[in-house]
Each structure stands twice: as structure tokens, then as C-alpha cells.
């Protein structure tokens, strides 16, 4: 655990030191759960968004883009259910004065105190029985595993019932009966559970009035901008079902607990795609998109750091839902949600607006409200995952024949903020710096480059390693003779010699998004 906390601290410190992420309004001691993306952060973030946009919009003939306004008519949030039901149950610890989500306390208890024990028993048995181990049979028959599984089922069924029926006392009873303590102080002295609406409300226009529609909300999800534009997009692009609408944009939630760096913020960015399908086919498409989205993540993260988590309690609009979880320094947590949202949103907007939101199916010769499968991933959570997965300390040979520690960000090259650093071997040799400038002026048309001549070459390599630059191009005295340069690979430390004229082709090939799509 200490290692994980260290890793978390190293990530936040590195992000600040190398211009990835700064605390918002830092000179005023910051605003909690708000962060600014620095010069390298914004480049990485843009590359992540491009990877998603290409995978969704460019690679699918039947997915088109949209950029809807953040502020929408207040009735949108009434119809979507957010005004009445976008609540989190919160609970305070009277001694530590810390506030928690009651549902998260219970879910964490199940994961850490029940599921973890089942997995421990299974792991022990696997070790004992070796190749002869029949895991399915063990899970179905072992006394202790059955005991824990029963306990899990009991907790989950009470938990789901309390959440669905909004029985807040039931949640408090469960927290007390399970002996759940405040993670900070160990105290079990809890307040009652209360509901807390997560939407930020604000006054619209110059004059505040009591009129219902002068109160607007900062959107808590981008999806509703897609739903209300469903027919506009379908008609103008002449799409037939199934088809999707993709959007990237800011969303805002007044989160109860927001203490995990950019994992849970009050202002964040989502990349959402709503896939409109014929009613009755939605669960097939739900499975399809689960598979597709997992593959997309697997192209940038190791498979063992990703897993599915099926929702025990479904949101008010869903008939199936799963998260893709990533192993963050604080454990497996949601990075993306895949939801089968039924016809709930379009149906409710149709009712409240009085406008038809139906699709005419020319084959079946009938009109209906399509069903929707949604994929929704947080840009900031992806960013965090990329950094957490990339940041490493390793031993490498130093110039004196010994070993030295280097800090390196092994970001997938195509996502790296700076792709190529152009470095003259020595600063005080005008013929080298002039040549290096020429190479830089050529390459800046190809990709994001940086020119750096300050400090010894070894220190400049380290600086680029820490930023995550996959390739360093060094201009030395041989370059002046034969127009070749050294290209150093960040990960393998191998150096190859290439003609300057071949650089563009080399870079375009290895730094193409096709590497990920392959
Ligand atoms: N439209 C569906 C929807 O918004 P969600 O599971 O609440 O579903 C989708 O959010 C994704 O948005 C999450 O998987 C997560 O990556 C991101 N997200 C949600 N709340 C966030 C927050 N407070 N800070 C950062 N990212 C967040």
C-alpha cells in the first residue's frame, strides 16, 4: 500500500515539475478538485482525444460528430431525470469531519473485505493443486468461498434494494452492521445518510428571476446534447440505424468527495458516443461495444491493468451497464462506462418537448423511438492512466561505464506530447546549432518537435526522457560531413544513423495512429 501511495505522490509531483498538470488558481492556494493542464499536458490530452475521435468517427462510416453547447434548456435535465435523481447518498463522520459517499463505502467494503478474501482462497488452492486445479469446481464447493459468496450476495441485495427504493436509513444500517470505519480516522461515529444533487445550478441572463427556466445547469454529462440533436443529425447526414453520434466536451459535477487528483474532478471532460439501434437489438450492440472499447484501451495499456465491472445497481435509464476499470495507484477504478440506455432519454424528451423523436424504418415501414447504447470515457481519467502506466524509474548505463537511475515516461509514442527533440551535440559550435535549427525547421512541419541546446547532451536526453519524448535526433560533426543524424529511441536507448532526408518518412511511419489501430 505504501508503494502505491508513493507511486501516487510521484505521479502528481512529476506532472507538476514537468509542466503536465498544475493545481487551478495555485497562487490563491488552489481550488479543490480543479486542475489546469500545462504545456505538455495539453498536448497529451489533445492526442488522447484525437486517438478516440479517429477510432470512433474517422474509422466508422456510421458514426458522426457533434459539438453541442454546455448550457441547455433546463427542461432537458428534468426530462433526463437529472433534476430528480442525479444524487449521491452522502454520509459524514462526526469525529474526522470527513464526508463520504455511502454507496462507495459499502462497495469498497465488499471489494476489500469479501471479494479479496475469496480471491485469496482461490489463489492458495491454485498454488496447492497446481495443474490439477479446477477453479470453477473449487468456487462452487469450497466451504469458506461459499460462506464469503453468501455474505457478498446478502450485502449486495440489501444495498441494491436501499439504493433503488431510496431508503437512506437502510444504507446507514448496513454501514453500521458491517462495522465500516472512516478510512482516515478509524471512527465509526456516522451521521445519517442524505441525498445530494450533483448538478451545478446557475442563473441565466442578466436578471435573476424566479421563473423556472431562468435557472440553468452546467451539463453533468455531454450525452443530452446528443439526444436532443438526434433528429437534426440523422436527417442532415441521412444516416440509417444503426448509427452513432460522438462528442467530446466538458461536464460538471459537484462531487461530494474529490480527493484523487484528476480522477474525480468537479470540471472534467468526457468523450461520449450514443449508438442508436433498432429496439430489441440493443443487448447485441451493448456486447459489441464492450468488446470494441476494451480493444481500444488494450492498444495503449497492458491487458492485465484492465477489467470489466458489471453494475449491480443500474442507473434509472439503463437495462445493462458495465465499466471498464483501469488499475490506478489506488486500485481498479472506472475509466469508461458502457450503458444500454434503452429508449429512456429520447422517450422522455419526446414526452416533455411534445416533439416526435422517432426514426422511420423504411424496411419495416414503421416509425419508432430508437434504443441507445452509450460508450462514455473520461479524458482526464485516461490521461491519469496514461501517465500512471508510463512513469518509470530504471537503471541505465551512464557515460562513465557505471549505472544511473533515469526517470522516464514511456508514453505510447503516438500520444507523446513532443515526438522528436532536435539536439545539436554542442551549444558553442555555430555550425552544429545552425544545422540543428535547419533540421528542426524541417521537422516542425511533420510533428510536435522541440529544439534544445542547453546543458550537456546526457542531461538533455534525461530531460526528454522525463517529458516522454520518444525520439531524440542529434546533430554532430558527422552530420556536417554526410548529412546523417543519430536517432535515439527513448525505450530501448538504441541509436541508429539516418540521412536527414529519410527522417520525415521514418517519423511518419512510426508515429502514425495506424500503429494503435493495427
Ligand atoms: N453519460 C453517461 C455518464 O456520464 P458516468 O459513468 O457518470 O456516465 C462517464 O461518466 C465517464 O466520465 C466515467 O467513466 C469517467 O471516466 C468520467 N467521469 C465521471 N465523473 C467524473 C469526474 N468527477 N471526474 C473525472 N471524470 C469523471
Low-confidence stretches: none
Report the biggest beta sheet as strand number plus sense, adding barrel if it closes. 7 strands, mixed
Share of residues in helices = 40-55%
Please state the structural category.
Answer: alpha+beta
In what range is the share of β-strand residues?
A: 15-25%
How many helix segments?
18
Each distinct ligand: glycyl-adenosine-5'-phosphate
Total strands: 23
The span between the termini is: 36 Å
Q: Strand order of the main beta sheet, please?
A: 3-9-10-16-13-12-11
Q: Rounded to an integer, what's the Rg over CA atoms?
A: 27 Å
Mean of pLDDT: 94
Dominant shape: globular
Describe the model.
The chain is 41% helix and 25% strand. The chain is globular and about 80 Å long. Bound molecules: glycyl-adenosine-5'-phosphate. Glycyl-adenosine-5'-phosphate is lined by residues 221, 223, 253, 255, 264-265, 268, 270, 272, 334-337, 374, 376-378, 380-381.
Amino acid at each position: 500500500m505504501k508503494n502505491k501511495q508513493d507511486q501516487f505522490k510521484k505521479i502528481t509531483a512529476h506532472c507538476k515539475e514537468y509542466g503536465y498538470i498544475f493545481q487551478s488558481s495555485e497562487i490563491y492556494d488552489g481550488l479543490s478538485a480543479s486542475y489546469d493542464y500545462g504545456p505538455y499536458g495539453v498536448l497529451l490530452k489533445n492526442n488522447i482525444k484525437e486517438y478516440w475521435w479517429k477510432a470512433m468517427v474517422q474509422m466508422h462510416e456510421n458514426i458522426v460528430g457533434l459539438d453541442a453547447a454546455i448550457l441547455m434548456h433546463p427542461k432537458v435535465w428534468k426530462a433526463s431525470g437529472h433534476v430528480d435523481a442525479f444524487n449521491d447518498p452522502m454520509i459524514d463522520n462526526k469525529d474526522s469531519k470527513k464526508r463520504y459517499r455511502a454507496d462507495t463505502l459499502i462497495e469498497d467494503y465488499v471489494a476489500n473485505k469479501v471479494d479479496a478474501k475469496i480471491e485469496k482462497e482461490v489463489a492458495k488452492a491454485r498454488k496447492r493443486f497446481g495443474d490439477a486445479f479446477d477453479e470453477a469446481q473449487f468456487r462452487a464447493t469450497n466451504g469458506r468461498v461459499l460462506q464469503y459468496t453468501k455474505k457478498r450476495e446478502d450485502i449486495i441485495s440489501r444495498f441494491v434494494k436501499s439504493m433503488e427504493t431510496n431508503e437512506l436509513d437502510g444504507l446507514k444500517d448496513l454501514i453500521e452492521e458491517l462495522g465500516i470505519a472512516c478510512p482516515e480516522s478509524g471512527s465509526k461515529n456516522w451521521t445519517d445518510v442524505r441525498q445530494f444533487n450533483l448538478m451545478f445550478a446557475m442563473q441565466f441572463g442578466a436578471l435573476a428571476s424566479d421563473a423556472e427556466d431562468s435557472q440553468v445547469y452546467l451539463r453533468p454529462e455531454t450525452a443530452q446534447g446528443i439526444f436532443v440533436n438526434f433528429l437534426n443529425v440523422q436527417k442532415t447526414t441521412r444516416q440509417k440505424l444503426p448509427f452513432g453520434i460522438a462528442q467530446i466536451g466538458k461536464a460538471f459535477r459537484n462531487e461530494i468527495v474529490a480527493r484523487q487528483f484528476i480522477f474525480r474532478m468537479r470540471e472534467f471532460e468526457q468523450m461520449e458516443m450514443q449508438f442508436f439501434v433498432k429496439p430489441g437489438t440493443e443487448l447485441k450492440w451493448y456486447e459489441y461495444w464492450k468488446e470494441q472499447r476494451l480493444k481500444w484501451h488494450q492498444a495503449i495499456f497492458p491487458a492485465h491493468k484492465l477489467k470489466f465491472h458489471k453494475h449491480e445497481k443500474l442507473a434509472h435509464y439503463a437495462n445493462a451497464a458495465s465499466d471498464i476499470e483501469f488499475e490506478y495507484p489506488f486500485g481498479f477504478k472506472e475509466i469508461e462506462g458502457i450503458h444500454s440506455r434503452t429508449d429512456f432519454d429520447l422517450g422522455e424528451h419526446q414526452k416533455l418537448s411534445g416533439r416526435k423523436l422517432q426514426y422511420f424504418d423504411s424496411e419495416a415501414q414503421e416509425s419508432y423511438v430508437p434504443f441507445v447504447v452509450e460508450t462514455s470515457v473520461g479524458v482526464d481519467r485516461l490521461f491519469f492512466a496514461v501517465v500512471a502506466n508510463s512513469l518509470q524509474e530504471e537503471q541505465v548505463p551512464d557515460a562513465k561505464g557505471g549505472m544511473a537511475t533515469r526517470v522516464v515516461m514511456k508514453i505510447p509514442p503516438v500520444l507523446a506530447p513532443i515526438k522528436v527533440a532536435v539536439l545539436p551535440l554542442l551549444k558553442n559550435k555555430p555550425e552544429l546549432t545552425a544545422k540543428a535549427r535547419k533540421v528542426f525547421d524541417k521537422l516542425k512541419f511533420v510533428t510536435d518537435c522541440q529544439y534544445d541546446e542547453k546543458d550537456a547532451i546526457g542531461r538533455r536526453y534525461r530531460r526528454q526522457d522525463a517529458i516522454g519524448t520518444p525520439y531524440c535526433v542529434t546533430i554532430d560533426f558527422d552530420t556536417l560531413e554526410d548529412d546523417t543524424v543519430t536517432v535515439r529511441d527513448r525505450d530501448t536507448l538504441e541509436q541508429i544513423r539516418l540521412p536527414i532526408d529519410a527522417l520525415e518518412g521514418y517519423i511518419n511511419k512510426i508515429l502514425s495512429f495506424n500503429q494503435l489501430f493495427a
